[in-house]
Amino acid sequence: MTTVNAESRDSAREAAVKVVSARSMVIDGAEVVLTDELRHSLHELFQHTADGEGVEIVARAEYLSTQQAAEILRISRPTLVRMLDDGLIPYERRRSHRRISRQALDDYLEAEKTQRARALEDLADTFDPTVEEQPVATR
């Protein structure tokens, strides 16, 4: 990974601010229209560079193998297969292989995040500051 020099960081910081409201940009004299998605991607790229972070661009596949999806979820492939069989994540079969759409995986991750946040809020609601803490006997 390369280090980002001060001049690149300054340029990236300026570009990050400008690209947010830009509708187009000029490259080699030709105007290129920026979609919301492209504008967002460029802003992230510039922001990470401005922060001195190295950036790596990787294409996202529309459909993932079970191994790829398991790696994204940080679980084993057999665990993912059980989740697929239990209907927790929708998938398609292509011949004898399961394929998970990136959108389905993103939806699952977002639902899990929401569920964790809700559980944490529920746990926080059980806290009663008027109750004095006592040691809990475990034996």
Automatic annotation (TrEMBL):
Entry-linked SUPFAM superfamilies: Putative DNA-binding domain
Listed GO MF terms: DNA binding
UniProt-recorded name of the protein: Excisionase family DNA binding protein
Organism superkingdom: Bacteria
Organism from which the protein derives: Nesterenkonia sandarakina
Domain Helix-turn-helix span(s) in chain numbering: 63-111
InterPro entries noted in UniProt: DNA-bd_dom_put_sf, HTH_17, SinI_DNA-bd
Pfam families assigned to the protein according to its UniProt record, in alphabetical order: HTH_17 (PF12728)
